[in-house]
Specification:
heterodimer; A: 187 residues; alpha/beta; Rossmann fold; 2 domains; two-stranded antiparallel sheet; 8 strands; B: 168 residues; 6-stranded parallel beta sheet; 4 helices; 29% helix; globular
Chain lengths: 187, 168
């Protein structure tokens, strides 16, 4: 079994294992956890759109990767053409996490585990959740085992943690900010 | 090619074809004929209001008199589908419909009338619809959301990082 652990900087990253499969760092996780096999960061920092602190973090990440011979995947060397060949009818990417999951599927990993990727409802990352969910669906469709770890993780979980209609709690339900949000009409 | 059009009530439902198999989401049948109705809502406790409950009764009656299959909470093959896909992630009727279409072996799934905005009451549903579209794509099924739908689309229409336009 080929396993990859895709680890974000959110709450729960500490739960990612050290002895099971490859570890891919999302953006600056490597600054908190140096033991990773690869860093992936699809953000643009040069124009300071994410601020000076983020750019300084990215500079440090690039330096560590260079010194420690850790592969760094960014906009310039992401194998977009090859990934797009694997998924010719998909051009849906909204974050580094979605690119990482797509790459893991493209590289034929049998198991994809997500840690520290919460994309909690009501945060700036919530809009990225739909695309991350989409790529989890692609993995599942290809019969790849994909698991999103952590109590605070909203990936592949409904906004109220319930299976619609049946009102059965999902196995690992998450409640946004401790409050159950409720839709206002049937769908 | 085994093909189905899943049609919701949002703007764009009128564009759905009549010359292929069609599934209507909730009360669409009141507006146009379909080959199957799917509605995974609970109406008895009036949680969605009296009007929705009345329309549901009307739809059920129309299904009965016209011999149109009606799929609801009681006859949806939930355990079979959960077992096959190993997930319990369902955010609404549309997601259950896509899952059922994949389960039944359709090779082309066209979505119509799913064009809510992210900040609308239905916006919370986009992630789980996208998820099931991903499952379909992963299985090699052609799935497309027609009209100005946000399904499988970024908010700004650009591919993240590269900032090039989404075309598919």
């Amino acid at each position: 079994m080929r396993r990859v652990n895709i680890v974000g900087t959110g709450y729960g990253w500490k739960d990612a294992p050290y002895d099971k499969g490859k570890v891919w760092s999302i953006t600056s996780l490597i600054l908190s956890r140096p033991e990773v096999d690869m860093v992936i960061d699809m953000n643009v920092y040069d124009d300071l759109r994410w601020g000076e602190v983020e750019k300084e973090h990215n500079d440090r990440v690039l330096h560590i990767c260079s010194m420690e011979n850790i592969k760094y995947v960014g906009l310039n060397n992401y194998p977009l053409d090859r990934v797009r060949k694997s998924f010719p009818d998909i051009d849906y990417f909204t974050s580094t996490v979605s690119y990482a999951i797509a790459l893991a599927i493209h590289m034929n990993f049998d198991e994809i585990h997500l840690y520290g990727i919460n994309m909690t409802f009501g945060t700036e990352y919530a809009q990225q959740k739909a695309c991350a969910d989409f790529w989890c669906g692609v993995a599942l469709g290809r019969r790849i085992k994909i698991i999103a770890h952590g109590d605070g993780c909203s990936i592949m979980r409904a906004f109220d943690g319930m299976m619609y209609g049946y009102d059965i709690p999902q196995k690992n339900q998450v409640i946004a900010g401790g409050v159950r949000l409720k839709p206002v009409s049937g769908n | 090619m085994k093909q189905v059009a899943i049609i919701a009530k949002g703007r764009g439902w009128v564009d759905a074809p009549y010359n292929c198999e069609t599934w209507g989401i909730t009360q669409l049948l009141i507006r146009r004929p379909v080959d199957l109705v799917i509605d995974m809502n609970v109406y008895e406790d009036l949680r969605w209001g009296k009007k929705e409950a009345l329309e549901n009764k009307m739809v059920m009656l129309m299904c009965k008199t016209s011999h149109i299959p009606y799929i609801g909470l009681n006859n949806y093959p939930l355990s079979e589908i959960m077992e096959q896909f190993d997930t319990d992630y369902f955010g609404g009727t549309i997601e259950y419909a896509i899952a059922l279409a994949i389960y039944r072996g359709y090779e082309v799934i066209d979505l119509y009338g799913i064009n809510f905005k992210l900040n609308s009451e239905y916006g919370y549903q986009k992630p789980s619809i996208d998820f099931w579209c991903g499952v379909a794509k992963g299985r090699g099924i052609k799935i497309k959301s027609h009209g100005d739908s946000l399904i499988m689309k970024t908010i700004d229409g650009l591919i993240y990082g590269y900032d090039t336009e989404q075309k598919l």
